[in-house]
Write a structure and sequence with these properties.
Largest sheet: 2 strands, antiparallel
Strand content: under 5%
Protein name: TraB domain-containing protein
Pfam families: TraB_PrgY_gumN (PF01963)
Order of helices and strands: HHHHHHHHHEEHH
Strand order of the largest sheet: 1-2
Radius of gyration: 27 Å
Mean pLDDT: 77
Number of strands: 2
Number of domains: 2
Structural class: mainly alpha
């Protein structure tokens, strides 16, 4: 996505189809895949309203970084499948239903003024507080844990660079690294809060095993999905047979009618 042009991305962001759903489920599992598609629906809604492809700030950063000699570009966020799976595991069954319904029913118009308002620190903090109040576990997995992960990755990138020694007797020298981090505004307070802490990311990059309920829901979703596909194929084939049968039947009737006239 970093290398794709805006026009292609704009088109891709607006289109949600069966192929994308199948790919999301294949990569992330049924529940996480369905959640990803719902979030893509939200993204498509915003894209259509604003006429801007998502992730423009990251593409701009990638473009500028490529102009700087010896600059290394790092993808510093936690892998999406881990975030989705941890988020799904953190929600109760009814919270999943509530969240899915909220995402499905999203249709409010969005303007550029609304986007500008979201850049205001006070309003952003208010939105975060509302999210914590309604879905505390979702906020923890999607925001707080990623604050820790992003901070850890930025600190790793900001470590001093060790220079090669001229000889074994000479002491090693190091130079400070110059780092530019491009993150969403909602992550800035968390990064500032975690910067001076000793961070361990092992726990937040592990994926909890699916619960019994998740397995049942996943199986039911698979059966429903493939059942709908199978039923569609059956309806199409039945329709084809009916058309094929109707042709000779019509010819037979015409022949009989012709015999009666003569």
């Amino acid at each position: 996505m970093l290398k794709m042009d805006e026009e292609t991305l704009l088109k891709e962001a607006k289109e949600i189809n069966i192929e994308k759903l199948h790919q999301a489920i294949k990569q992330n599992g049924v529940m996480s895949g369905l959640m990803q598609m719902l979030l893509l629906k939200v993204s498509a809604h915003i894209t259509e309203q604003l006429g801007m492809a998502p992730g423009g700030e990251f593409r701009e950063a990638f473009k500028e970084a490529s102009k700087v000699p010896f600059c290394k570009f790092h993808l510093g966020d936690r892998p999406i499948p881990i975030t989705f799976k941890r988020a799904i595991a953190a929600l109760s069954f009814w919270q999943k239903i509530k969240l899915a319904w909220g995402l499905c029913s999203l249709s409010d118009p969005i303007s550029e003024d609304d986007v500008e308002k979201c850049k205001q620190k006070d309003l952003l903090e208010q939105m975060m507080s509302e999210m914590i109040g309604e879905f505390p576990d979702l906020h923890r997995t999607i925001v707080s844990e990623r604050d820790i992960y992003l901070t850890y990755m930025l600190k790793q990138a900001a470590k001093r660079t060790e220079l090669p020694r001229a000889s074994e007797t000479e002491p090693g020298k190091s130079i400070p690294s110059i780092v530019v981090g491009v993150v969403g505004m909602g992550h800035v307070p968390g990064i500032e809060k975690n910067w001076s802490n000793d961070l361990d990311i092992q726990e937040i990059i592990s994926v909890p095993p699916p619960s019994s309920l998740s397995k049942i829901v996943s199986f039911a979703a698979k059966v429903t999905f493939f059942g709908l596909v199978g039923y569609s194929c059956y309806c199409i084939s039945k329709r084809t047979v009916q058309i094929l049968v109707s042709v000779p039947t019509t010819q037979y009737c015409l022949q009989r009618l012709n015999q009666m006239i003569h």
